[in-house]
Design a protein that fits this description.
The chain is of the alpha+beta class. The chain has six helices and nine strands; from the N terminus they run βαααββαβαβαββββ. The strands form two sheets. It has a seven-stranded mixed sheet with strand order 1-2-3-4-5-7-6, sandwiched between helices. Strands 8-9 form a two-stranded antiparallel sheet. The longest helix is centred in the middle third of the chain and has 16 residues. It is globular and about 50 Å long.
Length: 186
Amino acid sequence: MHGISIRVAAPDDLDGARAVMLDTVYRDFGTGYVPRWHGDIVDPEAAYLASPRHALLVAVDGGGRVVGTGALDSRGPAHPPNPRELAERYPSGETAQLRRVYVRPEFRRHGIARRLVAELVEFAVADGGYRAVYLHTDPAVPGAEAFWRSLGKVVLDEREEPGGGQGIVHVEVPMARVGVSGHASA
């Protein structure tokens, strides 16, 4: 989509970023704001701007409106609620966890999320201290599972586990440049 720029979030972008994130958890996830899961949404400055190893990117339209977000932090998946093997495979400090890759519905299917992820992966590589890029997704959100499968490798699909776990799909994205086609390239 023309006229969309991706940039590191500045303090003036935080209200718009927060609005995209909150709209997504209410509309797409149906959960609404849950403090134990969404504390970073309320205070994205502390979560993403305060640490040089964390990032919050925003996609901005020609009028300056934030229409998408993408974040990364150095916290691996916690056990519990995630399976122990994931916490061991993706330890905090060595894992860049992708978070809050959200795009407003009217701007979806134009490559914005893919661009956000590509820049976040580049950030992780440039950091030098990360050895993996990880995320989890809820397959009940329309389009989410297919999108992440196009960018990475599923390392655990909890739906296939005895009891189904939380029903979450866990993905590793290659630490290589994610091209516009969605395939990693060197």
